[in-house]
Amino acid sequence: MPVELYYWPMIPGRGEFVRLVLEVADVDYRDIARLPVEEGGGIDAMMTVIKSGIDGKIPFAPPFLVDGDRLVSQTAECCIYVAERNGLAPREEALRLFARSLALTTADFVAEIHDVHHPVGTGLYYEEQKPEAKRRAEGFRRERLPKFLNWYERVLTANPKGPDWLVGDRLSYVDLGLFHSIEGLGYAFPKRMASASDSWPKVMALVARLREDHRLRDYLSSDRRMAFNEDGIFRYYPELDAEN
Amino acid sequence: MPVELYYWPMIPGRGEFVRLVLEVADVDYRDIARLPVEEGGGIDAMMTVIKSGIDGKIPFAPPFLVDGDRLVSQTAECCIYVAERNGLAPREEALRLFARSLALTTADFVAEIHDVHHPVGTGLYYEEQKPEAKRRAEGFRRERLPKFLNWYERVLTANPKGPDWLVGDRLSYVDLGLFHSIEGLGYAFPKRMASASDSWPKVMALVARLREDHRLRDYLSSDRRMAFNEDGIFRYYPELDAEN
User: Fold this and answer.
1) Given B63, B85, B107, which residue is the final one in a domain?
2) CA-CA distance, B180 to B187, in Å (whole number)?
3) Locate the GST C-terminal domain: which residues (chains A, B) (predicted)?
């Protein structure tokens, strides 16, 4: 039976991190909320699981996966689940554990990126927190963004197998997480990211390579890949962007 | 060789979530940054690992664990690592996976609790973001805190094994995570939490039971258990608290 992915159908959002792993691992999956109601899809089908759970297992929020009697929620855990069962995670235990730590750090990074446009609260619109967002964006561009990207760059540099991948000597799900984060940052902060190749050459080389990688190319040009927009995590608000 | 826990020595912070699991699982561990320099401890010993990593595995931030050649970072992943190897996680796979999802949701909750006093940025002092914190605190008390606690209450209610524990029929690490979160909320938001037993009776019953549980009692009364303070995650700022 195909794995079921549940996520909001109108944004790439956090669901896209899971979708990328499913696509690259070539897993048979159903993207429930994006399917027509006649095929058991739609937002209502998602809300039913959020309300009732699966055998007492209730997700806090999308994205989540349902695989038989298993319910896996939280973006990082969904990625880990799919990747470790489908050849997109390191096999050696110490590397597997480090990859998990890395996936959770990427989730933290994504949460901070989101909170740039929602510093006061997720319950309010961006328009209700613009001055605060502007202030937070400055600290994000100057301190938090470099702190995270410096760290990814250091991890690539320190990889005993070379700087091509974050962990081990082949593509794993954590590279896909970094890839999508950088794509999103390029969309949301084009001025800030214009000099990224100078600051974080190994990170940006990895992303450029993945953009052309045969394992991603088909998916990225398909209509399953959604465009970024101003309802998701990565939003382009020119007033929050600057060269530094 | 004992497992090494690395975390800031002056606050309970996120490290306390890991420490609780280590203590209750009765794991032999060394709390490195709190040990004297002569015993290989101190903050410098921690900074060395943050700077150099372990065989190319570099943590983004404390807390992290070092166990031989393994480096595990991120609070939730540290708790998962210790619990799954030491009898504090469910054995059945579907429950094990749901527990992981739960642990990551608790990490998100803790991040939101932290951001109440730091909405604009972690690089600024609380005193530099007091008006924004006050605004965020209102949304937190009225929407986010109930959203999370309602969910824990629903998870307890839906547990096919009864409402004593979040997952399965015995204590697991996710109960400890909820326990410490509630203890911290009681410290930071005493007015808001005064009516918690009416709103979330099963959650508060679990916490009350754990407070007296023989597996925790010794630790909680030891000098290894640190008091909450205004440098950590859970801070008592009266101006951020209210009954609703």
Assistant:
1) B85
2) 11
3) 92-240
